[in-house]
Design goal:
- There is one protein chain.
- The mean pLDDT is 96.
- The longest helix has 14 residues, at 34-47.
- Strands 1-2-11-8-13-6-3 form a seven-stranded antiparallel sheet, with helices on one face. A four-stranded antiparallel sheet has the order 7-12-9-10, with no helix packed on it. Strands 4-5 form a two-stranded antiparallel ribbon.
- It starts with 14 loop residues before the first strand and ends with a strand.
- The chain contains two helices and 13 strands.
- Helices cover 12% and strands 32% of the residues.
- The structure holds N-(carboxycarbonyl)-S-(naphthalen-2-ylmethyl)-L-cysteine and fe (iii) ion (FE).
- The site of N-(carboxycarbonyl)-S-(naphthalen-2-ylmethyl)-L-cysteine has 15 residues, from strand 6, strand 8, strand 11, strand 12 and strand 13.
């Protein structure tokens, strides 16, 4: 018998877990960088505040979002797309912070995608109860580029399906510092996040923050 009481408190030993064809989990890859990443998120949200986007179908998303980089992902009654400016301010999105760029490139490299140069980072905020329903990410021009995701704060249950919405979904726990690289045949897989369970994270309190690095154009 083993004791798992401290699973949520102790940092994981960094290691790689294959998830599916083209998808790999880099456990704890961002653990050391996390404080700097969170500081950068605070700067980003000071100029491009959290907002709840509305789907083209008129549903308010429970995830709060913002962006940094040359392009930001937005959704409204006109559809899903990447925009060079924040619709709330009319100003360009905050620049991609150097620690973001470096971490994303190093993670992609470790997963076999050399030369990944993201031009967009969607920043998602989950509070207890927040969920993200099953979807594909397909608003990017070059689907040969992977997406790199970084989980910070409270752990989440990530849902990972197949190329069709009705394919069965696997549940994967993503904790603070975990990075996932989604490329190849997994790039268009359906995925989502189960309602966030409450908790109290030493750096993030009752929040989970997810960074997704993309090549939009
Ligand atoms: C699999 N975010 O921002 S990250 C999203 O935790 C999004 O906030 C979730 O889905 C989150 O679009 C999941 C993991 C992720 C991101 C993009 C993917 C998995 C993916 C793209 C293709 C396949
Ligand atoms: Fe997604």
């Amino acid at each position: 018998m083993t004791f798992d009481l401290f699973d949520d408190l102790l940092p994981e030993t960094p290691h790689t877990e294959p998830l599916a064809a083209g998808a790999v989990i880099l456990r704890a890859f961002a653990h050391a960088a996390a404080p700097a990443l969170l500081e950068a998120v605070a700067r980003i949200t000071a100029s491009a505040p959290w907002r709840h986007l509305v789907t083209p179908g008129g549903q308010r998303m429970s995830v709060a979002m913002t962006n940094c980089g040359s392009f930001g992902w937005v959704s409204d009654a006109r559809g899903y797309r990447y925009e060079p400016a924040d619709p709330l301010s009319g100003q360009p999105w905050p620049a991609m912070p150097e620690p973001f760029r470096t971490l994303a490139a190093e993670a992609a490299q470790a997963a076999g995608f050399a030369g990944f140069a993201p031009d967009a980072c969607l920043v998602n905020r989950y509070l207890p109860g927040t969920r993200l329903s099953l979807h594909q990410d397909r608003d990017e021009r070059d689907l040969r580029a992977p997406i790199v995701s970084v989980s910070l704060g409270l752990p989440a249950t990530f849902l990972f399906g197949g190329l069709q919405r009705t394919d069965r979904t696997a549940r994967v726990r993503l904790a603070h510092g975990d990075v996932v690289v989604w490329g190849g045949p997994s790039r268009l897989a359906y995925h989502g996040v189960a309602p966030l369970a409450d908790g109290d994270h030493p750096l993030c309190g009752h929040e989970r923050i997810n960074l997704t690095f993309r090549r939009a154009r």
